[in-house]
């Protein structure tokens, strides 16, 4: 028995009724967030092996291959930088016993799955003593710098002010009352930022990415402005839709569920326009805005190379002008 259901009853998933519905379905499947729902609906109407082959091919070519082509270009750009930091950022091996709560053990009668329900604390008071010890060393380093530079000269440098604030926050975090409540744990974690200042290569790399601040800051302001404008427009479009009790910001991971909820609540005549609106917003954010951030960072990395080329050209022009000047002097003398 065939059920004649409309698009709202079907849920707008896995619909290939016309070209527009097919484009919307393919885009949902290619976005990696809604492809499983489309796959399940198509498995009910198509042979399961055909649905598996179709959607695996769709995910591979659209979601993985096409969208990640620019990642290969970026990876090639950062290849030399990654080689320099490969030894610094090596990941340590983690044993299975420490990471997982289940494991297989072999007995005389066969294999058994052992589950560890209790969390074993291997560190205990030792970890707290280590934390206090590092905090004392950090404070001692700050006191030595104050005694060497003097308090006024110490406070003139921004990095030293930052270290003093971290010392105060880390010292407060060493108190048991605040340590148990994690109020000042951020000061202890931010001490790692000093490693950027300690390594000239790492500091130069971070400076290249985030400088000059006008480009990245302007892009952040543009993104915030775009989100505010899009939220205001969306609020005016959908706040009066019946059976849609609230309008909330949708992240990339759950945007398909929210789109379907809005499509079910809107009028049938407005369904294509609502679908186009959300697809256009998702395309603009995931492809254009994110690519702008990547382009700004790459442009900052390439600035030093461009400056070097300009300096080399100016040096060549200066040498050429000098030789021409000498040649003219020789001609006048002769």
Automatic annotation (TrEMBL):
Residue ranges of every copy of the Ion transport domain listed in the record: 15-83, 132-305
SUPFAM superfamilies: Voltage-gated potassium channels
Record's subcellular location: Membrane
Keywords: Membrane, Transmembrane, Transmembrane helix
Molecular function terms from GO: monoatomic cation channel activity
Transmembrane segment boundaries: 12-30, 50-74, 216-241, 274-298
A Pfam entry, by short name: Ion_trans
Membrane topology: Multi-pass membrane protein
Keyword Transmembrane helix in annotation: yes
GO cellular component terms, semicolon-separated: plasma membrane
BP-aspect Gene Ontology terms: positive regulation of synaptic transmission, cholinergic; positive regulation of synaptic transmission, GABAergic
Name this polypeptide is given: Ion_trans domain-containing protein
